[in-house]
């Protein structure tokens, strides 16, 4: 395979930990990340940026303070900057995230679920 080509399924197949995003590639000042999710994350915001979720496999609930947004395979949802949210996966979810380089997974919440971005490959 060409070294410039990345395969989402191949990347996800190498991942064993949940809530630990890996950079698949970058586009301008944005990272395209793959991640496996299971359980409930932490309530947090990203004060300076939107966050895009695209579900590859499974069913993801993005809890907002005023409603829940449920995503299935191939669904995309953008959490607007500054909106408090808490992703929840009752069964394992495989997803793609699109956000500016340097965005911390736990946003302004910090804590033990904060992960350093890992590289795929």
From TrEMBL:
Q: Which InterPro entries match?
A: Cupin_2, PKS_Associated_Protein, RmlC-like_jellyroll, RmlC_Cupin_sf
Question: Which intervals hold domain Cupin type-2?
Answer: 40-97
Q: Which Gene3D superfamilies does UniProt cross-reference here? A: Jelly Rolls (2.60.120.10)
Tell me the protein's name: Cupin domain-containing protein
Source organism per UniProt? Microbacterium maritypicum
